[in-house]
Design a protein that fits this description.
single chain, 211 residues, alpha+beta, five-stranded mixed sheet, 6 helices, 5 strands, 22% strand, globular
Length: 211
Amino acid sequence: VSFPAELRGSIIHRILQKNNPDISKEEIISIIKEEDRNVDDEAASSLQIEIFGRLKELFGSDIYSLINSYKKSFNEYEIYLKEEDYFLHGIIDKLIIDDKKAIIIDYKTDAVQKEEICVRASLYFPQLKFYSYIVSRLYKELTSFELRIIFINFPGEDVNMKIGREEAILFGDEVKAMIRQIRLREFDQNLTHCKECSFALENSKCIVERV
């Protein structure tokens, strides 16, 4: 049975939310059936084996031990911020508060190759900077932010970025500018991104014609 990548990703995130490396086979199967009510027992068992196999290395990794050693942490942490006449919203996979530092962790379930990690991470860091901006506004005492991406297939890879409070706040200005452009329907093409875009023809030609 073939399962969509989005379904696998959703199941993995729910398992990680429980923060239990000793999670049972039965509990994983229960999560699978909640996510896909049409799956039969055989397919659910097969998917459970596949998913736990992917998570086993993560659960045994140094980074997993490290991030679970902090006393103050939140899983699937939902954040809201009123900004002018709109709200900013996000869900952080794991937020750690360590004195005056916030560690923002995002789990990625992409079927990425090891040599692609740096490029793929560069596409995701703006998302984590967005989170850091909201967190910086909610936690006034924070002075630094560690943005960490954990690729499930390569948990041993150290993919992180460190920024100060000023940089996090400045990213808020970029967010405001983007929202103004959206409202004005001003969409600039970034043709350098075509090779990474799933909507590009042959991974090189934009399907949207310039107006």
